[in-house]
Each structure stands twice: as C-alpha cells, then as structure tokens.
C-alpha cells in the first residue's frame, strides 16, 4: 500500500451499511480501517481493528486515519419502541450519544480531522409535517432511538465547535439494498410467495435510499471540505408510494404484487386491535425527505436510481438460498 494512501476508519464496519461503505472506499483506492467488535469480520480488503465496545475504544484504534465514518450504534428495535422506559432510553444514550462522543474524542486525539455521524431521519420524527423534511426542521424524535440520535447530533456539533473537529451529520430514511433485513425483506418474501398485501389503497409516500447511494454520499461527506459542520439528508431522489414500491418490487422479482385495496383507516384500526399499530402507522403515513442540500452544497448525485437499487436488491434476493 502506498504510504500516502488515504485511510478512513469505519466503526460498525461489519454491518449492512458498514460493509457497503468499506467496499465503496476500497473501490476508490482509499484504505478502510474496519473497526468491529469481538470476532466480527469486515469487508475483504479492509484492515480489521478489533474493540470490545465503544466504551473501550482508544486513540490507537484510529491511528493513521484522516477521517472516521461512525456507524456503530444501538439500532432501532420494535420491542424497544413498545417499552419507552427510562432504562431503554439510557441504553440508547450510552451507545449512541456517549459512544459517539468517545469515538470522536479518540479520533481527534489520534489526529483525525473529520468525523461523520450516521444519524437517522428519526431524529426529526416518524412522519413528515405535510411536506418533505428539511435539515433545518426542529428535532422531534418519536422514540428512545430517535432521541439518542438527535442528542448525538447536537452534542457532536457542539464538540466540533469546541475542539475544531470537523463534524458532519448524515440522516438517511429507510435504507435498502442487497443484504437488507427487517420489514423490507419481509415485504419481498410476501411478494415472492404470492401472498396478498393490504396495501393497494396506501398512497402515502416514503423516501428511500439504496445502501450504495448512502455509502457514496457518506464518503463524499468524509472528503468534501464544504461538508464541515453541516447536516445532510440522503435519498434516492424519488419518493414512491407504499403501493408503488410493492409493485416495483414485484416487477423486479418477476412476481406481480397482489395488492388488496384496504382503506388506510380500516387498516390502522385492525392493526391497533392486533397490537401492530406502529408497523402499520409507518406504512400508512408519509415520510418524505428533502435531499437537495447535499446535491447543491457538495455536488453529489446518487449513482443509482430507485429502479436500479430495487433491481439490485431483487437480484440478491433471488440468488440467495432459502428465501
């Protein structure tokens, strides 16, 4: 490796987004220092640096790195959303606020000059205010995960102002792509099996970002001088309705989606009785995100269209055994 080669550290490098970021760095000729917990593995070609947890991270973990892309976090889980206790909130804060600040401080002491925080649109809310969210909207997080991400944003930006560390915040909406899990994978499984979905009347629009688009934008935030101290939303640039998304997935899977036109109000009522209200609320409410700032400020454009991202995801799904 060239001694002058750029090196960027990626925390949480073994995760869905972390692997995509590492691949994208390596493809650009940038060395990726994959910071992972325990015996987890990073992307082939990345230099693995192991930690026990964010509370044990040290400046040595960031040695030789000019920037850090911080993806390690306690992720949003439905069980936690249902139990909004102080204990749950403190667990999120310990990982997502204290852990992020500790990583940023260690990175600064190691000589890194930029720290990119992967936040979430949940720092603003669960549904949009009748128009796409912008980066300047007030933070009104709906749950403990969103609260922790909102607090991490504020405290890291303050940390940057106090120390001179260049902080950049990236807020994605729903991330999908090859290797996706949770609700997006469940929808693909249902469509592939020909199961009827009660989504035919759901016209709420939801912003999405492919994992490859998110990786591209995040790396731009790590490299571009104009990103310093800014918050950026990242999307594919087109917001499909839930029904449209299901239809597009069906086209790429080669199995037309069987959509039943159940009115949104009836669907929400049935979900409430079944204890599934949060999941259905996310399907029936709009969550649109304005991502013009990153395009105008950094000149970034998504390398994939929505259709290209869905095609890649469907191809992965079809090629993966036991689906």
Describe this structure in words.
The chain is built from eleven helices and eleven strands. With 323 residues, the protein is α/β, with parallel strands linked by helices. It has a domain at 7-175 and 211-236 and 288-303: 3-Layer(aba) Sandwich (Rossmann fold). α3 (86-110) runs parallel beside α4 and α5 crosses α7 (242-253). The protein is globular and about 55 Å long. The N and C termini lie far apart (40 Å). This is Epimerase/dehydratase WbiG.
Q: What are the main properties of this structure?
A:
Rossmann fold; seven-stranded parallel sheet; two-stranded parallel ribbon; 11 strands; aldehyde dehydrogenase (NAD+) activity; Epimerase_deHydtase; Epimerase/dehydratase WbiG; NAD(P)-dependent_oxidoreduct
Write the topology of this structure:
Blueprint (H helix, E strand, L loop, with lengths): L6 E5 L4 H12 L3 E7 L9 E5 L15 E4 L7 H5 L3 H25 L3 E5 L25 H20 L2 E6 L2 E3 L5 H11 L3 E2 L10 E3 H13 L7 E3 L8 H12 L4 E2 L4 H10 L3 H8 L7 H7 L7 H14 L4
Parallel strand pairs: 1-2, 1-4, 2-3, 4-5, 5-6, 6-10, 7-9, 8-11
Helix pairs in contact: 1-6, 3-4, 5-7, 7-11, 8-9
């Amino acid at each position: 490796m060239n001694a002058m080669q750029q090196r960027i550290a990626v925390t949480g490098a073994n995760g869905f987004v972390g692997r995509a970021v590492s691949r994208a760095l390596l493809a650009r000729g940038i060395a990726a220092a994959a910071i992972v917990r325990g015996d987890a593995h990073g992307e082939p070609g990345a230099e693995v640096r192991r930690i026990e947890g964010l509370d044990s991270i040290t400046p040595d973990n960031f040695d030789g790195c000019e920037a850090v892309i911080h993806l390690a976090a306690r992720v949003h889980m439905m069980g936690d959303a249902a139990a909004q206790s102080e204990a749950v909130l403190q667990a999120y804060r310990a990982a997502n606020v204290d852990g992020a600040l500790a990583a940023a401080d260690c990175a600064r002491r190691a000589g890194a000059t930029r720290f990119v925080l992967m936040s979430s649109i949940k720092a603003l809310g669960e549904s949009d205010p009748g128009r796409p969210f912008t980066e300047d909207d007030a933070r009104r997080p709906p749950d403990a995960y969103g609260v922790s991400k909102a607090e991490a944003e504020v405290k890291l930006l303050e940390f940057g102002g106090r120390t001179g560390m260049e902080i950049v915040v990236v807020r994605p909406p729903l991330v999908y792509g090859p290797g996706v899990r949770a609700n997006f994978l469940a929808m693909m499984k249902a469509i592939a099996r020909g199961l009827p979905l009660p989504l035919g009347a759901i016209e709420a629009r939801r912003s999405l970002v492919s994992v490859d688009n998110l990786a591209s934008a995040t790396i731009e935030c790590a490299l571009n001088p104009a990103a310093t101290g800014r918050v950026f939303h990242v999307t594919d640039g087109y917001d499909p309705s839930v029904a449209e998304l299901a239809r597009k997935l069906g086209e790429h899977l080669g199995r037309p989606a069987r959509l039943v036109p159940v009115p949104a109000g009836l669907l929400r009522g049935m979900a409430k009785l079944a204890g599934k209200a949060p999941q259905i609320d996310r399907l029936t409410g709009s969550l649109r995100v304005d991502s013009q700032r990153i395009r105008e400020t950094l000149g970034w454009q998504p390398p994939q269209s929505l259709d290209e991202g869905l095609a890649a995801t469907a191809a992965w799904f079809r090629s993966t055994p036991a689906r």
